[in-house]
Design goal:
The protein has 110 residues and is an all-alpha fold. Helix content is 61%, strand content 0%. The longest helix is centred in the last third of the chain and has 28 residues. The radius of gyration is 23 Å and the shape is flat. The protein starts with 8 loop residues before the first helix and ends with a helix.
Length: 110
């Protein structure tokens, strides 16, 4: 509930007796996920194995030559396309899981 412009009024009121003064009043702070750094390091092989021509063409709605250009420009450091590549990788993973589940259901029904 919101009261006096403060969200979670009751929780803050109760926690105020247990926590140091001023701790629960700080405003929310976001953070940046270092996707670009991850894709150049620990996720690089996962990205390369996930965004293959076969996987992209299986989507049916994404052109491989466009993805290939994105991957090339990104890997050469010309431009940071990590967010777009991450979205494509997520789409490919989702599509593969959906197809795996569909194949499993069809197989069980047969």
């Amino acid at each position: 509930k919101v009261r006096l412009g403060l969200g979670k009024y009751l929780l803050r009121n109760l926690a105020g007796e247990l926590l140091p003064q001023g701790l629960g009043i700080a405003s929310r702070k976001g953070f940046v996920v270092p996707i670009g750094r991850w894709m150049g390091g620990p996720l690089k092989s996962f990205l390369e194995q996930g965004l293959t021509r076969k996987a992209i063409e299986a989507l049916g709605s994404v052109r491989w030559n466009g993805v290939e250009k994105l991957l090339s420009a990104h890997s050469r450091g010309r431009i940071d396309r990590s967010e777009t590549l991450f979205a494509l990788l997520t789409l490919v993973q989702w599509h593969q899981k959906l197809n795996d589940r569909t194949a499993y259901c069809v197989q069980r029904a047969a």
